[in-house]
Amino acid sequence: MEYPSKLEIEIARGVCTASCPMCSIDQTKYNKSVMNFDKFKAIVDSFGSSIEKIKHVNLVGLGEVLVDVRLNKKIEYLKSKKVEHVSFPSNASLLKPTVSTKILEAGCNEIIIGIDSMNKKIFEKVRRDLIYEEVLENTLSHIKVRDEGDYKSKVMIRMIINEDNKHEWDSYVEYWKEKLNFDKGDMILYFPEHNWSDHDYPNADGSPKIIEKDVRCEYIYDRLCLDAHGNVKFCCIDINATFFGGIGNVLFQDPIEIFNSNYFVNSRKLMDEGKINDIKPCSTCDVPVQRSQRGFHKNQEIDVPQ
After folding, report:
1. CB within 10 Å: which end of the chain, N or C, has fewer?
2. What is the pLDDT of residues 39-80, one digit of tens each?
3. What sign for the dihedral angle of Cα 225, 229, 232, 234?
4. For 181-207, what is each residue's pLDDT tens digit?
């Protein structure tokens, strides 16, 4: 019996303060929602004693996590279950000092903040509907709250690389290395823009194409990804939990049995044999290729689930 060491839970689905061209949020086909606490608790509790094997929970999906006013309560609940590491990505548009204090007090171990350029024009072209100055102010304020309270929480500043900002990396690092605290584990990251397999999105370049590769994609080996309704996604790219016609729902089935179902076992076997492209949704996905190109600063490796 295999157990995931990581868990991704989508607590905000289809609800965001930004509209980014590299995102597939408009393809969320049903029940856009912010997960209520009772459902969150039921999802966590569905793991029973197996929750002890989950070392890292990332509250991530297609939505802005900070729209959830009960985020701190959900972090607290995960901590009550002895989850070592709780993280989430954010565009920082709602990251006011009071919010920072709440999530840090709750035990948040890591926040991944997407700032794709230090140039206002480029930033607002990518993070549409956001205001550059507000996001920067919120981010710097969060770092200040974290440092003044001496919270053991990492700040990851991440750039999604595209044609407009690819020349910025060196100056980006120069700016952020003076703001972050590497002794706390802070990092400066980049990740090349990826596609969404067979899903449409504004930056899509025509119809899905086969991406030649023979790699393993670690996303189906070490983690279980859940949408806001408890449906199991094959991976983070399975945004509507529809790959293979649907895999299961942890509110009605044992999540560990799902993790060991033929959907995953057979797919891992194909990947081990170098036949990842025999898995239909994987054949047009470039995430396994792009993942290996993820950058990091200070020569330290860190897992930041996308």
Report:
1. N
2. 999 999 999 999 999 999 999 999 999 999 999 999 999 999
3. negative
4. 999 999 999 888 898 888 888 888 888
Residue 299 has what pLDDT?
Answer: 58
Name beta bridge partners: 112: 89, 156
- Residue 306 confidence (pLDDT): 41
Question: Mean of the pLDDT values across residues 239-254?
Answer: 96
pTM of the entire structure?
0.94
HEC readout, the chain = CCCCCEEEECCEECCCCCECCCCCHHHCCCCCEECCHHHHHHHHHCCHHHHHHCCEEEECCCCCHHHCCCHHHHHHHHHHCCCCEEEEEECCCCCCHHHHHHHHHHCCCEEEEECCCCCHHHHHHHCECCCHHHHHHHHHHHHHHHHHCCCCCEEEEEEEECCCCCCCHHHHHHHHCCCCCHHHCCEEEEEECCCCCCCCCCCCCCCCCCCCCCCCCHHHCCEEEECCCCEEECCCCCCCCCHHHCCCECCCCCHHHHHCCHHHHHHHHHHHCCCHHHCHHHHCCCHHHHHCCCECCCCCCCCCCC
